[in-house]
Amino acid sequence: MRDNDSATATVEIAVSTPAAPAAPAESTPEPAAPARSALVSRGALLAALGVAAFSLTFPATAWALEGMGPWTVVMLRSVLATALAGGALAVFRVRPPERRHWAGIAVVAGGVVLGFPLLTTLALETSTTSHAAVVVGLLPLTTAAFSAVRTGARPSRTFWIASLVGAVVVIGFAVQQSGGAPGRGDLLLFAALLVCAAGYTEGGRLARHMPGWQVIGWALVLALPVTVAGAALALSTEPLRLTVHSVGGLLWLAFGSQFLGMVAWYRGMAAIGISKASQLQLAQPLLTLVWSVLLLGEQLPPAAPAAALAVLACIAVTQRTRG
């Protein structure tokens, strides 16, 4: 800290000499707008890449469940993702986060490393991927609500109206598909929404203080004692049948959904804001529906095209509003 203080002092002496630096100070605001625009565009792209990765999570889970039990899938995906994330942290010699950040990292670990994967995987034992996808389509609204409470963000009224319309579309779509009778799978999915929204919000906040890959990396490392013990127990009690689908699904869950997708997602949230980034996830259930048809052979519900247009319109509105 003494070195940093002395460096600051030298800068102060340098700028306090003549009045010449006043001109550059006035010229600096000019490139700020293009730089900010580029940052927002890059952040939106990263968040969209994260959504694309997440859209494959349910089909990959369905593949993994063909040869493994639900607890085995959840614990092994986290252990494998930790191997990648921990290796990156070690190679780049990343210092552990400050003590004040560990509580937030624990929320990320509980929400997106353990809670959401476990609850959705258990739900997919009785629900189809298309049904689960539309229920989890409520995640943007729950994330925006958590963000407003946790970070003090105050999105505009137009933002909330568009978000609520998108949520109504998703709920209507889910009710039509389920016959209006939520079951055990739906309850698990609603619980998954809450824990995941908390993890996303806290991760997006932490990504302003450290790179996104370090946020999810440390969360995975923090959960490692639980996931290693859980994997050992699950492998000893649940059946295991390795197939191309089960292995491929597990590898995508570990490296695509659990790590690389989260890296892009948290960096995107840090750049464009948690509430706006969360609205890009309104497209996630519709992407998952497409994957469920292409990869799992499920029949696309007739209402999907209309829901897609309505949801994409809501996304356009939320992205044009300022919170």
Helices and strands in order:
Elements lengths: L1 H14 L6 H6 L4 H24 L1 H9 L4 H22 L10 H22 L5 H7 L3 H13 L5 H22 L5 H23 L5 H26 L6 H29 L1 H6 L4 H13 L7 H17 L3
Helix pairs in contact: 3-12, 3-14, 4-12, 4-14, 5-6, 5-11, 5-12, 6-10, 6-11, 7-14, 8-10, 9-15, 10-12, 11-12
Task: Describe this structure as you would to a colleague.
α4 packs parallel to α14 (284-296). Residues 1-31 have low confidence and may be disordered. The radius of gyration is 22 Å and the shape is globular. The longest helix has 29 residues, at 244-272. It has 323 residues and is mostly helical. 47% of the residues are buried. The protein has 15 helices and no strands. The chain starts with a helix and ends with a helix.
